Structure formats: C-alpha cells, structure tokens
Amino acid sequence: MHIVCSDLEGIFVPEIWINVADITGIKELRLTTRDISDYNVLMARRLAILKENGLKLADIQKVIATMDPLAGAVDFLNWLRSSVQVLILSDTFVQFAGPLMQKLGWPTLFCNSLTIGPDGTITGYQLRQNDGKQKAILAMQSLQYKVIAIGDSYNDITMLQAAERGILFCPPENVKNEFGEFPATFSYDDLKRIIKKTMNNSQ
After folding, report:
1. Is 181 annotated in the active site?
2. Which of 9, 15, 91, 156 is flagged as catalytic?
3. Is 9 annotated as catalytic?
4. What is the pTM of this model?
C-alpha cells in the first residue's frame, strides 16, 4: 500500500517568507531552504530580522491571509487524495498554516510551532523533532507503507532519500543539479504521471 508524503510550500502553496519579504520590502526574508541547507541557521536569521524590524505574528498572518494555493494545486491535491493516502510534511508552523490548509481542503499536515511572547512577538520555534520529515517517512514504512515523497528544497532531501520513490517538483537549479538521482518535474501533469507509474509498477 502506498502513501504520498509531500512538502507544502513550493508544492501546493507559494513560499510564505517570500511573500512576507515582497510585502514588507525586506529582501533578506526571501531566503528559504532552497538557498540555505541548514534550517536552524535560516530560522535564526529570520527571527533576528523580525525583531530588527518590529514585525510580529499578526503581521505575518496578515500576509498569509492574502495568499492562495498555486495554480492547479487544489485540483491536483483532490486527485491525489482520491487515489492514495496523503500526508503533508512541512517545516512551516501551526500559527501560519490554518488559512492555507482551509483553501486546500484541510489535508493532514505535520508541522512545527512557534513560541509567541505576550505582545505577539515571535520569540522562537519548536521543531516537532529534528529531521522530522525523514522520521515521518520511516514511521510510515514501519506501518508497511511504500512512500512516494515530493519536495523541492534542501530540507526535503533526507525525506526523498528515505522514501521508496523521491520526486523533485519545480526545484531550483542548485537543488536539481546536486540531487540528479531524483526525477525533476515541473508541472502537476508530470508529477501525476510519475506517481501513477510508480503505483502501477508496485502492484
């Protein structure tokens, strides 16, 4: 039996921090796990930037409320969920995800959480566990699932490596070139074809 485990941002919805960067004009917030492989280094810098600029949770949530899923994402996710069980594994946060999950039809999401000060300042973050995406794959495999994993960034690579089938979706050139062992897809139709083929070949 198969299960699909997929990243969220860049796969089904736009990158949250890039949208925050564009609206606030703070260019350095455009950096994501597509650019920096160490998530803790990236988040430490993001939190420092928020503090320097006096941005609070409500400011980010206001940006997220304006965001919509990527074009075609809802139809693809509906097809996927009608064909196979789906888990979304993300390094985003519970405090960010709600409006986007609603627009995607409330798929199952495993993610992290923020620590928030009394005045709404984001003071830190709590990972579900280190390398949580890979550990979720291993947990699914312990339940006898064959895992198809979808990602686009450095922080997805251990998940793709652990899965029976790892697929890159619209990866940046640096990730695509470094990890050529994974097929790179650039449309939902291409992604659908690989998933169908993988599932059919395993029956």
Report:
1. no
2. 9
3. yes
4. 0.91
